[in-house]
Write a structure and sequence with these properties.
By secondary structure, this protein is of the alpha+beta class. The protein is built from five helices and seven strands. It has a four-stranded antiparallel sheet with strand order 3-2-5-6. It has a three-stranded mixed sheet with strand order 4-1-7, with no helix packed on it. The N and C termini lie far apart (58 Å).
Amino acid sequence: MRKLPLLSIFILMICAVDCQREGPDCHLSFEIMNNSQDEILIQSREANAVNASCSFQMHRIPPSSKYELRLKSTCWEDELERTGGLLQLFFFDASRVAGKPITECDDDLLNSQILERREISIDYLRRNNWKVVFP
């Protein structure tokens, strides 16, 4: 019986250290709005990181829809400060990329498929109410 209260205290201590609470100085997500008539794919990577790699986990956003780019345990403010202040967003036409292997951020195939590339800063996100609108 005594194990349950100790376990609860342990979990609360871990959460107090690791769990970020969203608020005016901590945003766990921002919204990407697709205002185009076509389905798009978005992908992100750290803009200033040396040898930054892309995970190529692309997210589909249907026309006139939105997607929430979310971090699990840290604020975007902290994440971007840690990585040099910028996040690159890549926007792709979903119909042109479908089924084509993309393995590196800067290879010819990727660059030929990008509709738009943006570098997003915390200041940009604050000015735009934590929203990125495409196009």
